[in-house]
Amino acid sequence: MATDYDAPRKQDEDLKQDSLDELKAHTGAGRSDSVDVDEAEAADGFELPGADLSDVELSVAVIPAQDDEFTCGSCFLVHHRSQLAYEEDGMPICTECAS
Ligand SMILES: [Zn+2]
Fold first, then answer.
1. CA 43 to ligand 1 center in whole angstroms
2. In angstroms, what is the span from residue 45 Cα to ligand 1's centroid?
3. What is the pLDDT along the chain (99 residues), one digit of tens a residue?
4. pTM above 0.70, yes or no
5. Ligand 1 centroid to residue 51 C-alpha, Å
6. Contact (CB, 8 A) for 71 and 92
């Protein structure tokens, strides 16, 4: 009976070790593969939204600022009046751009 227990147990350990090694090999290969794909997809995905962003920035600059806010003529961000440094050709310049 003892040999009956030993034989299958040893086989199981061998199988476990084999599948572990296989898992490691597959996981390692799968990781590098997916990273390559992700980087390629990310590069492709960044180009189109990046082109659209220029339009978004333009439309943001057109939005009129609130009474106590102004749109900086340099960075086109809306700032509170307390951050107005000076006006250049009628365009308000924020303190961040002035410094
Ligand atoms: Zn600014």
1. 30
2. 29
3. 556 767 666 666 677 777 777 777 766 555 555 556 666 565 665 555 555 555 555 555 555 556 799 999 999 999 999 999 999 888 999 999 998
4. no
5. 22
6. yes
